[in-house]
Amino acid sequence: xxxxxxxxxxxxxxxxxxxxxxxxxxxxxxxxxxxxxxxxxxxxxxxxxxxxxxxxxxxxxxxxxxxxxxxxxxxxxxxxxxxxxxxxxxxxxxxxxxxxxxxxxxxxxxxxxxxxxxxxxxxxxxxxxxxxxxxxxxxxxxxxxxxxxxxxxxxxxxxxxxxxxxxxxxxxxxxxxxxxxxxxxxxxxxxxxxxxxxxxxxxxxxxxxxxxxxxxxxxxxxxxxxxxxxxxxxxxxxxxxxxxxxxxxxxxx
Length: 253
Fold this sequence. Notes:
This protein is of the alpha/beta class.
């Protein structure tokens, strides 16, 4: 499941979502802008950077990392990225904060002792999605984050509930973005299903929305890339067979 892509879309749609899961969010959180940046020499890729409004003077920049796989050097990288970016943009910001989002504590880096100063401070926030509470009691955008972690057996029921809740609680001009996100999450979670099967599972009719087309185009591009790789492999094997005769299976592998 491509969670990086899902969380990127979530934060794009609603940058203030990050601050809904923090204990002490900035008072102007609604005005923050979401971006992703690369820091060169050495090159770092930061998952998400939340930039304060430019007309409010030097503000606090928030770095966000969404981590769904074990990485035993995650904190080394996150703190190096954050410090370097802050150093190179010092005039723009008064302070920095980091937010690391995990599905559960089991995914967290094992050896955290070298980073105890940051991790025990108010500057770094660790969020464990499975500890946020009942998905049906959470704010709707936070519930979408938790939906990415729900087991496949339970996900369709929770997705249908969130669709129903969206129609009841959210104004029509805003509900489309949430419905798109629910659809996106479920299509990624059940990539093997056809459009008709996803429609049946969710109890809705999917229109050919931009989000749905993007998901399918991603799949087609991956398929084309796999096809190109296989074509290259076949060409190499043909050349070797021509030069050395039929290769044994273990050598082909």
